[in-house]
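Project standup — Tuesday

K.O.: blocked on the structure for the chain from last sprint. Re-posting the sequence here as requested.
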Amino acid sequence: MGRGDEFGTLQAGKLGDVLVVDGDVLADIAILQDRSRFLAVLQGGVLKAGRLVLGR
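H.V.: unblocked you, prediction finished:
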């Protein structure tokens, strides 16, 4: 896509959507069906949802 300087890896200054879960999804993909296990949902580098959001 010619935009490797913007995304493609997790590092400072790049765009990214990240889902952080409590558990090993490689061992049990069903973890992704349990939203209570979502620790953080970051969209474009902004914390949008999950247990790490303040006030939850």
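K.O.: great, moving the ticket to review. The first strand starts at residue 17 and ends at 21. Residues 17-49 form one domain.
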